[in-house]
Write a structure and sequence with these properties.
Layout: H1 27-43, E1 47-49, E2 59-62, E3 80-89, E4 94-101, E5 104-114, E6 116-122, E7 128-134, H2 135-147, E8 163-165, H3 166-169
Antiparallel strand pairs: 1-2, 2-3, 3-6, 4-5, 5-8, 6-7
Length: 179
């Protein structure tokens, strides 16, 4: 496992559409996932997409077994490896919530997201995953899957007056949000 460099906003590799994974259960895929898990843990992230470390594949990871210091009020989200994901919207309700991103360090913004979604995809061995989730879990999945279509959360924001430095917006998180 290696901790990889996380690409930052402005790097054109973050704007690509990721390719689907063709082979499951391979040493290369397991190595990528191990590197992603190590990188996400080192950065104290809630999730990470392969494009954020320069790998143009449809692989996202998210969740934690412990509360995340960057999102102390958020409920726990089960640690998940999701490959070749598809999202379906359930209902018509959206909510705005604060988001940060390891590729947009030190900043947060209020982003509208679907309140409830279904997501489907595969784990590292190619077994199907099919869940319906809401709230913070749904937000994290939508955020990470946006990376697979070359979108960063600022492009989803409706009001840029709700975009700023974490240390100014959330001084209580100082030291916890080293995006």
């Amino acid at each position: 496992m290696a901790v990889r460099e996380i690409l930052k906003m402005g790097d054109s590799r973050l704007l690509r559409t990721a390719e689907p994974v063709q082979s499951f259960g391979t040493p290369e895929l397991y190595g990528l996932i191990a590197d992603m898990l190590g990188t996400m843990a080192a950065a104290r992230g809630a999730g990470l997409a392969a494009p954020q470390i320069g790998v143009n594949l449809q692989v996202v990871i998210f969740g934690s077994d412990l509360p995340n210091p960057r999102y102390p009020e958020a409920p726990l989200v089960p640690r998940t490896v999701l490959i070749n994901p598809r999202i379906t919207v359930v209902g018509s309700e959206q909510e705005e919530g604060w988001e940060g991103c390891l590729s947009v360090p030190g900043l947060r913004g209020r982003v509208p997201r679907w309140q409830t979604i279904g997501y489907q995809g595969f784990d590292a061995e190619g077994r199907a995953i099919d869940r319906v989730v809401e709230g913070f879990h749904a937000r994290v999945v939508q955020h990470e899957c946006d990376h697979l279509i070359g979108r960063l959360y600022p492009t989803r924001m409706r009001d840029l007056s709700a975009f700023g430095f974490t240390e100014v917006l959330f001084p209580q998180l100082l030291g916890a949000d080293d995006d």
